[in-house]
Amino acid sequence: MALKSMTAFGRTSHSFEGWRLTVEIKSLNHRFLDIILRLPKRYSPLEERIRRLLREKIARGRLEVSVQINGSPPGVLALACNWELARALVTILKNLKAELALEGEVSLAQVASFREIIVPSEEEVDLELLWQELAPLLAKTLEDLQAMRLKEGQALLDDLQERLLKVEDLLGEIKEIWPVAYEAARERLRERLQRALSGIEYDPARLAQEMAIMADKLDINEEMVRLRSHIDQFRHYLSLDEPVGRRLDFLVQEMFREVNTLSNKVQEAKINHLAVEIKGELERLREQIQNIE
Fold first, then answer.
1. Can you tell me which family this protein belongs to (predicted)?
2. 188-239 tens-digit pLDDT
3. Which end of the chain is less congested by CB atoms within 10 angstroms, N or C?
């Protein structure tokens, strides 16, 4: 079994030829796969490659990915000026001076000290060389993340199996009680019909037929069989080595539906109490399933 939690964290760093690369990935619960990527703008051509790599490894969850790229390889000394930003900055500083009646002139030092005015020339960056180093780092971070997801998943698996056993035990108690409770319900129905028809002529055969139809509507055997089938299917999904979170969530909804139908049919207090306990365990199952890939 390889159940995976959606909650985990991975971080790795690597230095080579003047570069310092750091990758952080945090995964959280989410119904689908949602990737939020923070990557320096100048390296945006690598974004789709990064996303593709993430999609190959992760099927479900919210991924918050930070890729930090600092430094430059030896020999990359060319610098460029962001003229548009520089002109905008000078205009703002002059307007600020005039508006607030400030002394002094706008200086080169003020403009040059502003972040991203003077930057390494983008055309000098060898993206292919960078990707050769970044791709294995991403893979290693994902490997660490998956290891944590598996560890957390094992804890979730243990809890789910324990709660599933409780649901089975409670269903077993209902099944044991039901034959006697069903006969009692049929007897109460028979008595109500007899009181209602007291003093009225009626066809005994027709009455028996109508009573059989009404009694069948009180029977919960079908609900118990379907609930048992859902439990078996749930356990089968837990054994699969693939993402099963959404399928488990669907099964729990189906289990809730069967238990609610069962409760509405039965007037036996003990069975209704057991049904409430089953719904409590199903609610806990549903809460845990939200953490599963």
1. Belongs to the YicC/YloC family.
2. 777 776 676 666 766 666 666 666 666 666 788 899 999 999 999 999 999 9
3. N
Residues 97 and 34 placed together within one structural domain of the fold = no
pTM: 0.69
Domain that holds residue 40: 8-76+125-149
Query: In terms of Cα–Cα distance, which of 207, 186, 185 is closest to 196?
Result: 207
The C-alpha atoms of residue 266 and residue 173 are separated, in whole angstroms, by 14
The listed range with the strongest mean pLDDT (17-21, 38-42, 117-121) is 38-42
117 inside domain: no
Averaged pLDDT, 82-106:
82
For the record, the structure tokens of 90 come out as: 């000078």
CATH for 19: 3.30.230
Angle at 56 between CA 242 and CA 160, to 5 degrees: 25
